[in-house]
From TrEMBL:
This is Mannosyl-glycoprotein endo-beta-N-acetylglucosamidase-like domain-containing protein. Keywords: Membrane, Transmembrane, Transmembrane helix. It comes from the Bacteria. The chain crosses the membrane at residues 18-40.
Length: 211
């Protein structure tokens, strides 16, 4: 009887251990699989939520967040074509406005007069910059921005900026270029013969700023 009792208990213990081992090898992989599935699902949902949030930021920007849109490749224009005269006038106007010059209003006339006498459109503006900071330092009422006609008894005056632009441009053509003074350095030799070269350096530099 005792032997049978031990045998029965051993059988029960064997089957119990077998069931536990089987349950371990079945439940453990299943649990691991469920855990991995849950982890990947969580990451996917997070990524999807981030994409959705990003899209919302573009549609409805939040304070403190900058959203950059691509710039248009074609811009509206006032005129389909800009003549070379208009472009040069604009260059002069912007240059002189940067220095607060009253001559800025005459940029168109300067270009027209330069064309009339076949001059570089920048020349008289550069000379005016060298001589008077483009008309800001001149004798009152003289309209002479170019130091034109300076002599021992004073300097020449004009009735208006219009007259000054005309007379200086014409004088540069007839008294300088037509007589062989064709470079700024050569013009300096007659225009201001006592200069040590700084006059030509200044005029050349100012002309280069208007390119």
């Amino acid at each position: 009887m005792v032997s049978d009792s031990f045998t029965r208990e051993e059988n029960i213990g064997f089957w119990k251990n077998l069931i536990l081992v089987t349950a371990f090898f079945v439940v453990t992989p299943l649990t691991l699989g469920i855990s991995l599935y849950s982890l990947f699902s969580f990451k996917s949902n997070t990524a999807a939520r981030e994409v959705f949030d990003t899209a919302n930021l573009i549609v409805s920007p939040q304070s403190g967040i900058k959203v950059y849109a691509s710039l248009p490749t074609v811009f509206p224009t006032v005129s389909e074509q800009i003549s070379s005269s208009d472009a040069r006038s604009e260059i002069l106007r912007q240059y002189m406005e940067n220095y607060g010059s009253p001559l800025a209003l005459y940029s168109g006339l300067i270009v027209q007069t330069a064309d009339k006498y076949s001059l570089d459109f920048r020349l008289i503006t550069a000379i005016a910059q060298q001589e008077s900071n483009i008309c800001k330092i001149i004798p009152p009422g003289s309209y002479n921005c170019w130091g034109w006609g300076i002599h021992s008894n004073g300097s020449l005056g004009f009735k208006s900026f219009d007259e000054g632009i005309e007379e200086v441009s014409r004088g540069l053509r007839t008294d300088y270029l037509n007589k062989g003074y064709t470079t700024v350095n050569e013009i300096m030799g007659k225009y201001t013969p006592l200069s040590n070269g700084s006059w030509a350096d200044g005029v050349n530099e100012f002309m280069s700023e208007m390119e």
